[in-house]
């Protein structure tokens, strides 16, 4: 019989897991609304307007629609894989959050118990995130193949080739940050960037900004967002790998995509923008709880990705490969050398 | 508790390994292989070696299997499914499998192995790095030269003939 | 100009993502600028200029007599043959002449609002007005009869038009209406 303290620990972990999954599951609701609003205003429109004030209830209406929509499985599809693929794409996206820290510690008022703002303090955190985050690709490949449709198959093929090309440079960028901070642990990474904004990795001149650019480009390709959304290129492939999906199964893919976007924003903030450290080391900034700094930076990055989406056109497939293999990888190899020299 | 997890992961790994061989559809085989590799990664975690587990998933599941699937997707499935594999006599196959199994069992019983790693040595990233660059420097360098040769060869093969 | 420096400039431009920054700054500018979407039908409504060609209207002179003399020129000139006019004799002073229209109807489903009937009309009786909310639920309501056309339209002729007004969206048993509030007028660029 385990004692009370162990039970309490288990309870805390269960609560943390359910809070995080709850947040992640409901994340697409605000994010789709924000994305459509940003799209609207960039195109000098209003975006959603009529369902609720400023259209805030639009995502709920969409959700109801997706829930009651007919679930179509193509007749000649590989039924088992077709049904499995959305889950394969969604579960890794959620698993990544096991290793992501949102802050150091937080004391619950009145009880005096301190809880940590992360699920697991892994000492191979960044490696785990890159490894698990990369698994989401199987949902796309297998979903594309199982649909038995030419558009889906091409989408799946494109995503696998794109993934292999960009995972290399993304890992190189992670290696660069690991070299700068001397740790694979995300908590250590943030701690090493404490102080003013000049201590952040992005201002580690001259290599910091280069790592940042490499990481952000590779991450954009990894999460299939414009300008690298070739697997679901609606101009040439209908909807790419999820052409044949409808209703809830489609929304699983969408959920995975939004969670991946948040993951990349969080990673960027942790790796390059000092995590939950305030931008200046002055007492006023320390009055704000660190989690708000963290969330603020993450939201800025989410906005940045949306902003990019409605600014840039989509790259051609050969351009995508050229950028990945002929620009990013040589650049990151050179940058590793420079970083190594700087550290010595 | 740990034994229970070990048995669970090992059972799934063996079952999925069998599925790799028995599945008629190459994509299903690939999926089973992915499951198998993930189970092996879980076994690495049980062996207190999270770094190896992450690397296992990162390289085998994340990259090698994606390439596998990429090739499998281009295959003409209808022909591939009909072909018997391997294209040799069954007796020969069984013989090879038995020899390999005997080898593995001999290895298991001869070398002293336990569920947890040898005491005193913590397989962290730092210690693995230190080992690679001190004790195992020569094999490490040999491996990198071989890999480089393979890389060059791949480029030469892939390059267009003038 | 030699090729060397320009290529270096090109490289620097690429390395610093100058083109991206330019594009992003343009979209950011639009993101914070006012949207041009009209909040029709909820809050705003467009009042057309006088030259607008909407639903037909039949005019009367200052004494309240019908201007239409049922000459049927509009019927002749109409390219889609959507106007039907049947003349009759009437010397009670209902029209400006002894000949008035017994039937004057237009099928809006066929009309293409070209305005030829306006041009052909010798007495300026028929005009294309400013009502443009013509959608309805069945075909019968697409035919407009004379009595209906003789009523003044929702926007009086004295208002210049060409601006946006606040409006209210009303649901009535007969259908939905967008009622403009003509007192508050604001110019807006479109």
Residue windows where pLDDT falls under 50 for at least 5 positions of chain B:
none
Classify the helix fraction of chain B into a percent range. Answer: over 70%
In the CATH scheme, what's the topology name of the domain at 51-152 in chain C?
Alpha-Beta Plaits
Give the helix/strand class of chain C: alpha+beta
Task: List low-pLDDT spans of chain C.
Answer: none
| Largest beta-sheet details of chain B | none
How much β-strand is present in the residues of chain B? under 5%
Order of helices and strands of chain C: HHEEHEEHEEHEE
Order of helices and strands of chain B: HHHHHHH
Characterise this structure.
The complex is a heterotrimer of chains A (344), B (162) and C (190). Chain A is mainly alpha-helical. Chain A has helices at residues 4-26, 28-42, 58-68, 79-95, 125-133, 137-146, 150-181, 186-191, 207-222, 247-272, 283-287, 290-309, 317-343, and strands spanning 105-107, 114-116. In chain A, strand 1 (105-107) and strand 2 (114-116) form a beta hairpin. Chain A is globular, with a radius of gyration of 21 Å. The model of chain A has no long low-confidence stretch (mean pLDDT 85). Chain B has helices spanning 2-22, 26-46, 50-74, 77-82, 90-110, 125-133, 137-158. With 190 residues, chain C is α+β, with helices and mostly antiparallel strands. Chain C has a domain at 51-152: Alpha-Beta Plaits (2-Layer Sandwich), CATH 3.30.70. At the A-C interface, helix 2 of A face helix 2 of C.
Question: Strands, helices and their partners?
Answer:
The complex is a heterotrimer of chains A (about 350), B (about 160) and C (about 190).
Chain A: H1 4-26, H2 28-42, H3 58-68, H4 79-95, E1 105-107, E2 114-116, H5 125-133, H6 137-146, H7 150-181, H8 186-191, H9 207-222, H10 247-272, H11 283-287, H12 290-309, H13 317-343
Helix pairs in contact in A: 2-3, 3-10, 4-6, 4-10, 6-7, 7-9, 7-13, 9-10, 9-13, 10-12
Chain B: H1 2-22, H2 26-46, H3 50-74, H4 77-82, H5 90-110, H6 125-133, H7 137-158
Chain C: H1 3-15, H2 18-32, E1 44-47, E2 56-58, H3 73-77, E3 83-89, E4 99-107, H4 116-120, E5 126-128, E6 143-144, H5 146-150, E7 163-172, E8 175-186
Antiparallel strand pairs in C: 1-7, 2-5, 3-4, 4-6, 7-8
């Amino acid at each position: 019989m385990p004692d009370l303290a162990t039970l309490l620990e288990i309870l805390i972990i269960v609560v943390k897991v359910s809070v995080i999954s709850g947040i992640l599951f409901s994340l697409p609701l605000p994010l789709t609304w924000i994305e459509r609003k940003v799209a609207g205003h960039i195109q000098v429109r209003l975006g959603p307007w009529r369902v609720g004030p400023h259209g805030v209830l639009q995502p709920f209406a969409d959700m109801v629609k997706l829930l009651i929509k007919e679930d179509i499985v193509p007749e000649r599809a590989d039924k088992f894989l077709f049904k499995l693929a959305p889950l394969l794409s969604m579960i890794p996206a959620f698993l990544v959050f096991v290793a992501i820290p949102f802050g150091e510690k937080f004391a619950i008022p009145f009880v005096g118990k301190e809880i940590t703002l992360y699920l697991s303090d892994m000492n191979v955190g960044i490696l785990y995130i890159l490894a698990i985050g990369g698994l989401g690709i199987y949902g796309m490949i297998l979903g594309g193949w199982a649909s038995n449709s030419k558009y889906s198959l091409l989408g799946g093929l494109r995503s696998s080739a794109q993934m292999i090309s960009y995972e290399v440079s993304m890992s190189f960028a992670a290696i660069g940050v690991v070299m700068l901070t001397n740790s694979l642990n995300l908590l250590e990474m943030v701690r090493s960037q404490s102080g003013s904004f000049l201590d952040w990795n992005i201002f580690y001149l001259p290599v910091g900004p280069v790592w940042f650019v490499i990481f952000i480009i590779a991450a954009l390709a990894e999460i299939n967002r414009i300008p690298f959304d070739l697997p679901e290129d609606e101009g040439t492939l209908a909807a790419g790998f999820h052409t044949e999906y409808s209703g809830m199964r489609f929304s699983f893919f969408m959920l995975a995509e939004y969670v991946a976007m948040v993951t990349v924003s969080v990673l960027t903030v942790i790796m390059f923008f000092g995590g939950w450290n305030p931008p200046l080391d002055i007492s006023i900034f320390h009055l704000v709880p660190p989690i708000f700094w963290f969330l603020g930076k993450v939201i800025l990055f989410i906005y940045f990705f949306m902003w990019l989406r409605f600014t840039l056109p989509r790259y051609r497939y050969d351009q995508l490969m050229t950028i990945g293999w002929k620009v990013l990888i040589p650049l990151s190899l050179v940058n590793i050398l420079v970083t190594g020299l700087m550290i010595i | 508790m740990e034994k229970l997890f070990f048995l669970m992961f090992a059972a799934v790994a063996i079952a999925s390994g069998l599925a790799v061989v028995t599945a008629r559809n190459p994509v299903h085989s690939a999926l089973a292989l992915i499951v198998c590799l993930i189970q092996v990664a879980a076994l690495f975690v049980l062996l207190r070696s999270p770094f190896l587990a992450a690397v296992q998933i990162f390289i085998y599941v994340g990259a090698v299997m994606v390439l596998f699937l990429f090739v499998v997707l281009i295959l003409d499935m209808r022909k591939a499914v009909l072909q018997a594999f391997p294209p040799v006599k069954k007796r020969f196959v069984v013989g090879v499998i038995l020899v390999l199994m005997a080898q593995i069992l001999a290895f298991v019983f001869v070398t002293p192995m336990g569920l947890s790693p040898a005491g005193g040595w913590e397989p962290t990233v730092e210690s693995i790095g230190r080992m690679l660059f001190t004790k195992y420097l020569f094999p490490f360098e040999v491996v990198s030269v071989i890999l480089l040769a393979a890389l060059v060869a791949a480029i030469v093969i892939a390059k267009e003939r003038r | 100009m030699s090729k060397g420096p320009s290529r270096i400039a090109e490289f620097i431009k690429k390395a610093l993502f100058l083109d991206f920054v330019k594009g992003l700054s343009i979209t950011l500018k639009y993101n914070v600028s006012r949207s041009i979407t009209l909040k029709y039908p909820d809050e705003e409504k467009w009042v057309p200029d006088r030259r607008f060609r909407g639903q037909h209207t039949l005019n009367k002179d200052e004494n309240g007599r019908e201007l239409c003399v049922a000459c049927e020129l509009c019927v002749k000139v109409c390219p889609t043959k959507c106007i039907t006019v049947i003349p009759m004799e009437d010397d009670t002073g209902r029209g400006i002449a002894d000949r008035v229209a017994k039937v004057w109807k237009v099928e809006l489903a066929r009309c293409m609002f070209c305005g030829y009937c306006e041009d052909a009309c010798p007495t300026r009786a028929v005009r294309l007005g400013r009502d443009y909310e013509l959608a309805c639920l069945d075909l019968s309501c697409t035919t407009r009869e004379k009595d209906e056309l003789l009523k003044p339209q929702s926007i009086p002729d004295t208002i210049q038009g060409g601006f946006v007004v606040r409006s209210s969206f009303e649901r009535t048993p007969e259908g939905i209406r967008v009622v403009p509030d003509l007192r508050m007028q604001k110019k807006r660029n479109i």
